[in-house]
C-alpha cells in the first residue's frame, strides 16, 4: 500500500490494536508494552505508513525536533558527541530526541532510525560507530543527515565526488587519521624502531581511521609494521592487548586507539616489571579528562568534541532551514599533547 493511502486506522487493524495505541507508538510515548510496540512497528514497516505530520515536517522544516541515533554506551567518544550535540542545540530553537542501540547491525540501526522518523524529526544525527557507509539503511529522501562516522558514501549518498553528493547529507569529525599519524611519528622521532598498535573495536570506522594513520606513519618511515591487536575501547581490553604484545618481546612503543586502552596498557607494563616511559612509551587518543592526572600523565591526541559538535550542529540547522553549507565534509584538526608517558627507547 502506498504511504499516502495508509491511515493510522489501517495500521491499527493490521496490528490488532486500537488507533490510540498506534498513536502512542508513533509519538514515542511510554507505557506501551514492548510486545505491542513491536507489533505496531512491524505493521508500520509492512504497510509503509508515514504520519502526515512527519511528511509535512520534511517539506516545511517547521518541526523543531532533531533525532539522534547513538550506541547505548558510556564510552568517552560517543558520550562526548551526544553531550556536545545536546549542548550545541540549546538556545537554537531545536531539541533532541535520542534513540540508543545495543549493536551496530543494520536491523538495530534501522529500528532506531524508524523510531525517530515517526516522531516528526526535522533532521537526523548518526553518531559513531554508526555512519553513512551502511548500504542497507533506509533514510527518507529529503531528511537532512549528519554523520560523525565514516565519510564513505552509503545508500543515501551516491558514490560520486563530493560535488555530486546530495546537499542535505554531510560528515563532520576530527581528523583522526592525521592525529593517529602524529602519534606514531612522535614515537618514531624519539628513536623507537617501530610502534605497536592496540586498535579499537573491529568494525568501527574510528578504528579503521586510526589504524590507517598509524600504518601511514610507519610506511613513510620505512619501518616494520607489527601486527595490530584489538581491544574494545575499555581499560581491561587494553591491559590484555598490551600483555599479549609484551609476550612477543622487543616492544618499546605502543600507540593505543583511545586513552582508556592506554591506561590498561600502562598497568600491563607495570605488572610485567617494566616502567613507563623508561622501558615502554605509550600514547593514547582522545585526551579523556583523567589522562592528564595519571601518576604518569599520558601523551595523547586531543579531539575537540565541543568544537566538532558545535560546527556540526550549526551546519545541520542551516541545512534544515534551507541554507545548506557549501562543504559537505569537514574535518577538525586533532592535536598531539605530549606529556610524560613517552621518552626515547632504553639504550
Q: Could you walk me through the main structural features you see in this protein, from its secondary elements to its overall organization?
A:
Strands 2-1-3-4-5-11 form a 6-stranded parallel sheet, with helices on both faces. It has 347 residues and is an alpha/beta fold. α1 packs across α2 (19-26) and α7 (176-189) runs parallel beside α8. α10 links the parallel β8 and β9 (281-283). The chain contains 11 helices and 12 strands.
Derived structural class:
alpha/beta
- DSSP strand content: 5-15%
Major sheet: arrangement of strands = 2-1-3-4-5-11
Task: Based on Cα principal axes, name the global outline.
Answer: elongated
Keywords summarizing the entry:
40% helix, 14% strand, 6-stranded parallel beta sheet, 12 strands, alpha/beta, 347 residues, single chain, elongated, 4-stranded parallel beta sheet
Topology record:
Layout: H1 8-15, H2 19-26, H3 34-47, H4 52-60, E1 65-71, H5 76-89, E2 95-101, H6 106-117, E3 123-126, E4 145-147, E5 169-174, H7 176-189, E6 196-199, H8 205-221, E7 229-230, H9 235-248, E8 253-256, H10 259-271, E9 281-283, E10 300-302, H11 305-320, E11 329-332, E12 335-337
Amino acid at each position: 500500500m502506498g504511504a499516502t493511502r495508509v491511515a493510522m486506522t489501517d495500521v491499527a487493524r493490521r496490528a490488532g490494536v486500537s488507533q490510540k495505541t498506534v498513536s502512542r507508538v508513533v509519538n514515542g510515548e511510554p507505557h506501551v508494552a514492548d510486545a505491542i510496540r513491536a507489533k505496531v512497528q512491524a505493521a508500520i514497516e509492512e504497510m509503509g505508513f508515514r504520519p502526515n505530520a512527519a511528511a509535512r515536517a520534511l517539506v516545511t522544516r517547521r518541526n523543531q525536533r532533531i533525532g539522534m541515533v547513538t550506541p547505548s554506551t558510556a564510552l568517552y567518544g560517543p558520550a562526548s558527541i551526544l553531550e556536545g550535540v545536546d549542548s550545541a542545540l540549546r538556545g537554537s530553537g531545536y531539541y533532541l530526541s535520542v534513540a540508543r542501540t545495543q549493536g551496530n547491525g543494520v536491523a538495530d540501526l534501522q529500528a532506531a532510525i524508524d523510531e525517530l522518523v515517526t516522531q516528526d524529526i526535522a533532521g537526523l544525527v548518526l553518531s559513531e560507530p554508526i555512519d553513512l557507509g551502511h548500504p542497507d539503511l533506509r533514510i527518507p529522501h529529503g531528511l537532512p543527515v549528519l554523520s560523525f562516522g565514516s565519510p564513505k558514501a552509503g545508500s543515501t549518498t551516491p558514490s560520486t565526488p563530493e560535488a555530486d553528493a546530495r546537499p542535505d547529507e554531510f560528515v563532520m569529525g576530527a581528523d583522526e587519521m592525521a592525529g593517529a599519524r602524529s602519534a606514531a611519528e612522535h614515537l618514531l622521532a624519539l628513536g623507537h624502531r617501530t610502534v605497536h598498535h592496540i586498535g579499537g573495536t573491529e568494525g568501527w570506522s574510528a578504528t579503521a581511521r586510526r589504524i590507517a594513520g598509524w600504518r601511514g606513519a610507519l610506511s613513510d618511515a620505512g619501518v616494520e609494521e607489527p601486527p595490530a591487536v584489538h581491544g574494545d575501547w575499555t581499560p581491561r581490553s587494553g591491559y590484555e592487548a598490551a600483555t599479549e604484545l609484551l609476550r612477543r618481546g622487543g616492544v618499546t612503543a605502543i600507540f593505543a586507539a583511545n586513552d582508556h586502552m592506554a591506561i590498561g596498557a600502562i598497568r600491563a607494563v607495570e605488572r610485567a616489571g617494566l616502567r613507563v616511559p623508561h622501558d615502554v612509551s605509550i600514547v593514547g587518543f582522545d585526551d579523556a579528562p583523567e589522562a592528564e592526572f595519571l601518576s604518569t600523565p599520558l601523551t595523547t591526541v586531543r579531539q575537540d568534541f565541543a568544537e566538532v559538535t558545535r560546527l556540526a550542529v550549526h551546519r545541520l540547522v542551516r541545512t534544515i532551514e534551507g541554507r545548506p553549507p557549501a562543504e559537505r565534509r569537514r574535518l577538525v584538526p586533532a592535536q598531539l599533547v605530549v606529556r610524560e608517558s613517552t621518552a626515547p627507547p632504553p639504550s
